Amino acid sequence: MTAKGRLLLLRHGATEWAVLGRHTGSTDVPLTPEGELQARAAARVLARVLGERTGGGAGGSGGAGGGVGSVEPALVVVSPRQRARRTAQLAGLGVPVASGGLGGGEPVVDQDLAEWDYGAYEGLTTPQIRALRGDDWRAFRDGMAPGGPGQPPGEQLEQVAARCARVLGRVRPELERGDVVLVAHGHVLRILATVWLGVDPTFGAQLLLDTAAVCVLGSEHEVPGLSRWNLSPGLLG
Questions:
Q1: Starting from the edge strand earliest in sequence, which strands make up the sheet with 75-78, in order?
Q2: What whole-number distance in Å separates Cα of residue 71 and Cα of residue 46?
Q3: What's the CA gap between 121 and 118, in Å, rounded?
Q4: Does 131 score more than 50 pLDDT?
Q5: Three-class secondary structure assignment of 153-197
Q6: Pseudo-torsion of CA 199, 205, 210, 215, nearest 10°?
Q7: What is the model's pTM?
Q8: Coil, strand, or helix at residue 108?
Q9: DSSP 5
Q10: What SUPFAM superfamilies has UniProt attached to this entry (predicted)?
Q11: Would you say 5 and 175 are in contact if contact means Cβ atoms under 8 Å apart?
Protein backbone atom coordinates (compact mmCIF):
# COMPACT_ATOMS: atom_id res chain seq x y z
CA MET A 1 0.00 0.00 0.00
CA THR A 2 1.29 3.45 -0.89
CA ALA A 3 2.14 5.58 2.16
CA LYS A 4 -0.19 8.44 2.96
CA GLY A 5 2.59 10.96 3.41
CA ARG A 6 5.45 12.39 1.44
CA LEU A 7 9.04 13.09 2.41
CA LEU A 8 9.87 16.80 2.39
CA LEU A 9 13.55 17.79 2.36
CA LEU A 10 14.81 21.21 3.46
CA ARG A 11 18.42 22.26 3.06
CA HIS A 12 19.69 24.73 5.65
CA GLY A 13 20.12 28.41 4.83
CA ALA A 14 23.37 30.01 3.71
CA THR A 15 26.50 29.95 5.84
CA GLU A 16 29.75 31.83 5.30
CA TRP A 17 31.51 28.64 4.25
CA ALA A 18 28.73 27.68 1.84
CA VAL A 19 28.95 31.08 0.16
CA LEU A 20 32.72 30.63 -0.23
CA GLY A 21 32.34 27.09 -1.60
CA ARG A 22 34.18 25.51 1.35
CA HIS A 23 33.24 21.91 2.13
CA THR A 24 31.38 22.07 5.42
CA GLY A 25 30.84 18.74 7.10
CA SER A 26 31.49 18.43 10.82
CA THR A 27 32.38 22.10 11.35
CA ASP A 28 29.42 23.62 13.17
CA VAL A 29 29.17 26.99 11.43
CA PRO A 30 26.13 29.25 11.98
CA LEU A 31 23.79 30.72 9.41
CA THR A 32 24.64 34.12 8.00
CA PRO A 33 22.04 36.91 8.30
CA GLU A 34 21.08 36.11 4.69
CA GLY A 35 20.80 32.45 5.61
CA GLU A 36 18.39 33.31 8.40
CA LEU A 37 16.26 35.30 5.96
CA GLN A 38 16.27 32.34 3.58
CA ALA A 39 15.18 29.99 6.37
CA ARG A 40 12.26 32.24 7.29
CA ALA A 41 11.25 32.48 3.65
CA ALA A 42 11.35 28.69 3.33
CA ALA A 43 8.34 28.57 5.66
CA ARG A 44 6.16 29.87 2.81
CA VAL A 45 7.33 27.12 0.48
CA LEU A 46 6.77 24.45 3.12
CA ALA A 47 3.30 25.81 3.92
CA ARG A 48 2.34 25.72 0.26
CA VAL A 49 3.57 22.15 -0.17
CA LEU A 50 1.93 20.98 3.06
CA GLY A 51 -1.24 22.77 1.99
CA GLU A 52 -1.46 20.66 -1.15
CA ARG A 53 -2.99 17.97 1.02
CA THR A 54 -6.16 20.03 1.48
CA GLY A 55 -6.00 22.27 -1.56
CA GLY A 56 -4.61 25.11 0.53
CA GLY A 57 -1.98 27.47 -0.77
CA ALA A 58 0.30 30.29 0.27
CA GLY A 59 -1.48 33.34 1.49
CA GLY A 60 -4.22 33.45 4.11
CA SER A 61 -4.04 32.98 7.84
CA GLY A 62 -2.72 29.49 8.57
CA GLY A 63 0.78 28.73 9.84
CA ALA A 64 4.14 30.42 9.29
CA GLY A 65 3.62 30.48 5.54
CA GLY A 66 0.01 31.58 5.67
CA GLY A 67 -1.37 28.49 3.89
CA VAL A 68 -5.09 28.26 4.73
CA GLY A 69 -5.14 24.51 4.18
CA SER A 70 -1.73 23.76 5.69
CA VAL A 71 -1.42 20.36 7.36
CA GLU A 72 1.07 19.81 10.16
CA PRO A 73 3.90 17.39 9.40
CA ALA A 74 3.64 14.04 11.13
CA LEU A 75 7.31 14.32 12.09
CA VAL A 76 10.24 16.72 11.77
CA VAL A 77 13.77 15.29 11.83
CA VAL A 78 16.89 17.47 11.83
CA SER A 79 20.64 17.14 11.54
CA PRO A 80 22.56 17.77 14.77
CA ARG A 81 24.38 20.77 13.26
CA GLN A 82 23.25 24.20 14.38
CA ARG A 83 22.77 25.47 10.83
CA ALA A 84 20.11 22.82 10.25
CA ARG A 85 18.45 23.13 13.65
CA ARG A 86 18.27 26.92 13.35
CA THR A 87 16.83 26.65 9.84
CA ALA A 88 14.08 24.35 11.10
CA GLN A 89 13.24 26.77 13.87
CA LEU A 90 13.16 29.84 11.63
CA ALA A 91 11.06 27.98 9.06
CA GLY A 92 8.43 27.38 11.74
CA LEU A 93 8.98 23.62 12.02
CA GLY A 94 8.25 22.42 15.52
CA VAL A 95 6.67 25.79 16.33
CA PRO A 96 2.97 25.36 17.26
CA VAL A 97 0.48 26.46 14.62
CA ALA A 98 -1.24 28.56 17.31
CA SER A 99 2.00 30.55 17.57
CA GLY A 100 2.28 31.07 13.81
CA GLY A 101 4.44 28.06 13.07
CA LEU A 102 4.02 24.97 10.93
CA GLY A 103 3.79 22.54 13.84
CA GLY A 104 5.03 19.00 13.58
CA GLY A 105 5.99 18.60 17.22
CA GLU A 106 9.45 18.88 18.73
CA PRO A 107 12.02 18.12 16.01
CA VAL A 108 13.93 14.86 16.42
CA VAL A 109 17.70 15.15 16.09
CA ASP A 110 19.18 12.30 14.03
CA GLN A 111 22.97 11.95 13.92
CA ASP A 112 22.68 10.08 10.61
CA LEU A 113 21.43 13.30 8.95
CA ALA A 114 24.76 15.04 9.56
CA GLU A 115 26.55 16.22 6.45
CA TRP A 116 29.10 14.09 4.60
CA ASP A 117 32.29 13.89 6.68
CA TYR A 118 34.95 15.34 4.39
CA GLY A 119 37.90 14.37 6.58
CA ALA A 120 41.08 16.13 5.44
CA TYR A 121 39.07 18.03 2.81
CA GLU A 122 37.01 19.84 5.46
CA GLY A 123 37.02 23.58 4.88
CA LEU A 124 38.63 23.32 1.43
CA THR A 125 37.09 24.38 -1.86
CA THR A 126 36.93 22.07 -4.86
CA PRO A 127 39.75 23.95 -6.68
CA GLN A 128 41.93 23.64 -3.56
CA ILE A 129 41.25 19.89 -3.29
CA ARG A 130 42.04 19.40 -6.98
CA ALA A 131 45.29 21.32 -6.61
CA LEU A 132 46.18 19.21 -3.58
CA ARG A 133 45.48 15.95 -5.41
CA GLY A 134 46.68 16.99 -8.83
CA ASP A 135 43.58 15.66 -10.63
CA ASP A 136 40.01 16.63 -11.52
CA TRP A 137 38.54 15.35 -8.24
CA ARG A 138 34.76 15.03 -7.97
CA ALA A 139 33.14 14.24 -4.63
CA PHE A 140 30.51 11.80 -5.89
CA ARG A 141 32.94 9.97 -8.14
CA ASP A 142 36.13 9.93 -6.09
CA GLY A 143 34.98 10.23 -2.48
CA MET A 144 37.11 11.62 0.31
CA ALA A 145 40.75 11.14 1.26
CA PRO A 146 41.23 7.88 3.21
CA GLY A 147 43.35 9.68 5.77
CA GLY A 148 46.97 9.23 6.79
CA PRO A 149 49.50 10.31 9.40
CA GLY A 150 47.94 13.29 11.16
CA GLN A 151 45.00 13.38 8.74
CA PRO A 152 41.44 12.33 9.61
CA PRO A 153 39.83 9.80 7.27
CA GLY A 154 37.02 11.06 5.11
CA GLU A 155 33.67 9.33 4.71
CA GLN A 156 33.04 7.49 1.46
CA LEU A 157 29.88 7.78 -0.63
CA GLU A 158 28.58 4.31 0.26
CA GLN A 159 28.96 5.11 3.96
CA VAL A 160 26.81 8.23 3.62
CA ALA A 161 24.27 6.24 1.61
CA ALA A 162 24.13 3.67 4.41
CA ARG A 163 23.38 6.43 6.91
CA CYS A 164 20.62 7.73 4.66
CA ALA A 165 19.13 4.24 4.40
CA ARG A 166 18.96 4.09 8.19
CA VAL A 167 17.17 7.46 8.30
CA LEU A 168 14.63 6.28 5.73
CA GLY A 169 14.10 3.05 7.63
CA ARG A 170 13.22 5.02 10.75
CA VAL A 171 10.89 7.56 9.11
CA ARG A 172 8.99 5.33 6.68
CA PRO A 173 6.51 4.12 9.34
CA GLU A 174 5.72 7.78 10.14
CA LEU A 175 4.66 8.35 6.53
CA GLU A 176 1.53 6.37 7.34
CA ARG A 177 0.52 9.32 9.53
CA GLY A 178 1.35 12.07 7.03
CA ASP A 179 4.22 14.12 5.62
CA VAL A 180 7.67 13.93 7.20
CA VAL A 181 10.17 16.81 6.96
CA LEU A 182 13.94 16.26 7.02
CA VAL A 183 16.15 19.31 7.58
CA ALA A 184 19.79 18.77 6.74
CA HIS A 185 22.58 19.57 4.28
CA GLY A 186 23.20 19.72 0.55
CA HIS A 187 25.22 16.57 -0.01
CA VAL A 188 23.50 14.27 2.48
CA LEU A 189 20.04 15.21 1.18
CA ARG A 190 21.10 14.61 -2.43
CA ILE A 191 22.41 11.18 -1.47
CA LEU A 192 19.28 10.44 0.56
CA ALA A 193 17.17 11.20 -2.52
CA THR A 194 19.07 8.60 -4.54
CA VAL A 195 18.55 6.01 -1.81
CA TRP A 196 14.82 6.78 -1.81
CA LEU A 197 14.70 6.39 -5.59
CA GLY A 198 16.74 3.19 -5.53
CA VAL A 199 19.37 4.50 -7.94
CA ASP A 200 23.15 4.64 -7.71
CA PRO A 201 24.21 7.29 -5.14
CA THR A 202 26.56 8.83 -7.71
CA PHE A 203 23.40 10.23 -9.36
CA GLY A 204 23.33 12.72 -6.50
CA ALA A 205 25.96 14.73 -8.37
CA GLN A 206 23.23 15.72 -10.84
CA LEU A 207 20.71 16.72 -8.15
CA LEU A 208 21.74 20.32 -7.57
CA LEU A 209 20.30 21.81 -4.38
CA ASP A 210 20.31 25.45 -3.32
CA THR A 211 20.42 26.71 0.26
CA ALA A 212 16.99 26.78 1.98
CA ALA A 213 15.41 24.92 -0.96
CA VAL A 214 12.60 22.41 -0.47
CA CYS A 215 12.23 19.05 -2.23
CA VAL A 216 9.41 16.50 -2.18
CA LEU A 217 9.85 12.74 -2.49
CA GLY A 218 6.81 10.54 -2.87
CA SER A 219 5.56 7.44 -4.63
CA GLU A 220 3.04 6.37 -7.22
CA HIS A 221 1.68 2.82 -7.37
CA GLU A 222 4.31 1.87 -4.79
CA VAL A 223 7.14 3.15 -7.02
CA PRO A 224 9.33 5.77 -5.27
CA GLY A 225 9.55 9.03 -7.17
CA LEU A 226 10.73 12.61 -7.11
CA SER A 227 7.77 15.00 -7.06
CA ARG A 228 9.45 18.40 -6.56
CA TRP A 229 13.11 19.40 -6.51
CA ASN A 230 15.01 22.53 -5.49
CA LEU A 231 12.02 24.76 -4.69
CA SER A 232 13.77 27.97 -3.72
CA PRO A 233 12.01 30.53 -1.49
CA GLY A 234 12.70 33.05 -4.26
CA LEU A 235 10.20 31.26 -6.49
CA LEU A 236 7.36 32.75 -4.47
CA GLY A 237 8.66 36.30 -4.84
A1: 108-109, 75-78, 180-184, 7-11, 214-220, 223-231
A2: 10
A3: 5
A4: yes
A5: CCCCHHHHHHHHHHHHHHHHHHHHCCCEEEEECHHHHHHHHHHHH
A6: 0
A7: 0.91
A8: strand
A9: S
A10: Phosphoglycerate mutase-like
A11: yes
Rounded to whole angstroms, how far apart are CA atoms 211 and 218?
A: 21
Q: What is the pLDDT of residue 1?
A: 43
Find out whether 225 is annotated in a ligand binding site: no
- CB half-sphere exposure, 108, CA atoms < 13 A: 16
Residue 76, classed as helix, strand or coil, is: strand
Domain ranges of the chain: 7-236
* Domain 7-236 part of CATH 3.40.50.1240: yes
Residues 6+ apart with CB under 8 A from 104: 72, 73, 74, 75, 76, 93, 94, 181
Give the whole-angstrom CA distance, residue 30 versus residue 82.
Answer: 6
Q: Residue 199 above 50 pLDDT? A: yes
Closest of 123, 120, 159, 118 to residue 139, by C-alpha: 118
Residue 62 among known ligand-binding residues: no
Chain-centroid distance, C-alpha 208: 12
